[in-house]
Design brief:
By secondary structure, this protein is mostly helical. The chain is built from 16 helices and no strands. Helix 6 runs antiparallel to helix 7. The mean pLDDT is 92.
Length: 265
């Protein structure tokens, strides 16, 4: 399994302590110059549209809160673990576009559909839900490329092909990776269960699944899976709207994703 940066481990460890000091979190992030630069670049991007420029991690913490800064740091660290090389069947640049778009849609759903104030956990859930595919690409590039082609030729879900040919799905591999990285249990569950969502699924897992469906319907980026689930009933039941409503509200998503890619790359 890919290693997670030590600074990100410390961010998770500190922020999971109920009595943690915000100064400790700032200190850990600032000891990682690359993470600091990318975090400030992201915070000052149009994605957040803050009324003033943020010049330090401490200022970001004051304006955005501990949980959001923690999740941004984890997101930046995770993106850094993506394989540098693509495979012919799936470009890593397109996969990052897809992942960031899913993160943005998941955050929008959490805010406007679930009426949550702090939506950063949903951004991270959308971003990381499919990262098991990156593990397969890194360690089994040729074999995994064949699975992607088979799924497209048969128009079947890539998850079912993975399980049949590899004995394990990318969702399970992603969850194993998240457990190794000691990510929160709810996020691990989201990664493991997003490919098999139903009415009993957690809001986080269902939101990631719905966001993925919307992003692939909008044809933003690529995750190698030709099969698009129909979540229309669940969207209406859990969110009180339909897929077309969400797509209509996300017309600025391509520009938003380009902004995010520029900040985290």
């Amino acid at each position: 399994m890919p290693a997670f940066p030590e600074s990100a481990h410390r961010v998770i460890e500190i922020s999971s302590d109920f009595n943690c000091s915000p100064k400790d979190l700032v200190r850990v992030i600032e000891r990682d110059p690359v993470m600091t630069i990318k975090l400030l670049k992201l915070v000052n991007s149009p994605f957040f549209a803050l009324s003033r420029s943020i010049s330090s991690v401490q200022h970001a913490l004051v304006y955005l809160g501990l949980n959001t800064v923690k999740n941004l740091a984890v997101s930046i660290a995770t993106v850094a673990t993506l394989p540098r090389r693509s495979i012919p069947e799936l470009s890593m640049s397109e996969f990052l576009t897809y992942s960031l778009a899913t993160a943005s849609v998941a955050q929008w759903i959490a805010k406007h559909g679930l009426n949550l104030r702090d939506t950063s956990d949903y951004f991270v859930g959308g971003l990381l839900h499919d990262f098991g595919k990156a593990v397969f690409i890194q360690f089994e590039p040729i074999a995994y490329g064949k699975l992607i082609l088979e799924a497209k030729e048969k128009n079947r879900s890539l998850t079912s092909i993975e399980t049949a040919r590899m004995g394990v799905s990318s969702a399970e591999v992603g969850a194993m990776l998240a457990e190794k990285w000691t990510l929160p249990a709810e996020l691990v569950n989201c990664i493991r269960m997003h490919a098999n969502c139903n009415e009993e699924s957690s809001d986080l897992a269902l939101t990631a699944a719905i966001a993925s469906t919307i992003v692939r319907t909008m044809q933003l980026g690529e995750n190698g899976d030709p099969y698009i689930h129909d979540f229309s009933k669940l969207i209406r039941k859990r969110l009180g709207c339909n897929q077309e409503d969400v797509i209509s509200a996300m017309q600025g998503l391509p520009e938003e994703v380009n902004t995010l890619k520029g900040a985290v790359n």
